[in-house]
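Standup notes
- DV: blocked on the single-chain target, sequence here:
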Amino acid sequence: MSGIIARWKSRLPVGPRTPIVTLGEGATPLIRADRLAARAGLKSGQVFLKLEGCNPTGSFKDRGMTLAVSKALEEGARGVLCASTGNTSASAAAYAARAGLRCVVFLPKGKVAAGKLAQAVMHGAEIAEVKGNFDRALALAVEAARAKGWALVNSSNPHRLEGQKTAAFEIVEQLGRAPAAQFMPVGNAGNITAYWRGYRELGVRPRMFGWQAAGAAPLVRGRPVDDPKTLATAIRIGRPVSWEGAVAARDESGGAIGAVGDAQIVAAQRLLAREEGVFCEPASAAPAAGLLKLARGGRVPEGPIVLVLTGHGLKDPDAASRQRPRLRRVPARGGLRL
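- DV (later): unblocked, structure below
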């Protein structure tokens, strides 16, 4: 059996009676990004990309969802539900389908990328559209979970973070050591909390750098954002559930949480696609934008740096379609001169 539970069973809260619901998640590639490193004024072999978009539903959420749904099944839940900006709903729907459970997802109306919504629909999730942002959708999901007795599988579910911490184990294993620093997007802040938990369990302390979109940066501002705005839908969150965990990861590791603008995110997404061959969704490009921002100020950490790319670019095709292709008209006969 493949998947993160089988691989890291001794480090996870599972027992002989836990039914393992897996789609073969985890074991995602860690690749060098030498052209990005050069753009940041760094040496070859110093910057690496952790491609979490290679998980079964195209995002890092699968690491936590396999454990959350497995435990829900073990505890006799009749269904699972969540609030989502997209990736959580896609993952929850897929793993619920795998487990034979009902799934209800609360989505902020008109604010979920097409690729993610399509996944939830195809996996049979029941969609509840919410007039409001993610934070309102989460409040309704929490209320519904209490009323129905279903398993809430947002990052407030402790099993989600336990599953997600396994990515830290993989990075150390693949790199042969802990990175000096890790850059990653921050929305609801569960993932940076989970990675830091994993690193601490291994007894290592890379500096944790989280990156938010400038229009949705509550951790940078130090207060909630009531109306978060950014094209990076995965991190369009104004009240992170794991706020304290993210702050602890930042402070205990000697890292930082910063913000990058949408224009910087789009430019980094294009750079990764055209110079590294990696197509990621906008939120996943925030760490690359952050690295380049620090490089301009001469403040890049020394040593190996890992950038966590949390979701595949096909998750948000609308964002990519805004890029204008260079078109050349070709006659029916005569071919194209290159």
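- Follow-up: The longest strand covers residues 102-108.
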